[in-house]
Amino acid sequence: xxxxxxxxxxxxxxxxxxxxxxxxxLQHGIILFTRLFDLDxxxxxxxxxxxxxxxxxxxxxxSPEFLDHxxxxxxxxxxxxxxxxxxxxLEEYLANLGKKHQTVGVKVDSFSAxxxxxxxxxxxxxxxxxxxxVREAWTRLYGAVVKxxxxxxxxxxx
Length: 158
Description:
Layout: H1 8-21, H2 25-39, E1 48-49, E2 52-53, H3 57-61, H4 64-82, H5 91-103, H6 110-126, H7 132-150
Antiparallel strand pairs: 1-2
């Protein structure tokens, strides 16, 4: 993940902004996924628990199983923030996570909508503190995470 190397300034911006978000990961995760389903409603059928298909994003967002998924996603972001100086330490974990996403039918392309949703959530949470520099730092971090996750996809899928 060398290309994802962040400057000390970018790391500080990410840590400072994440501190505000991490006070309520579930609430902010719900904002992220609400936005994701707005941007790409076709992702909804990928989320099934006990063979149950959700009829609406609202139904999905209120299910205990999906709320657990949101918590897990937010903890992955938290892990990336925690390991900013050494993102390569997460390389294998993220590649395996990518493989799991491929197995359930997620396409690598879907991660652009997730990235937009992440930035949307950060902007909503941070307000005026979400400066262009903060946006750029998070864009670079997310790009490095997606690059590592995409290594988990089969070559023919990418």
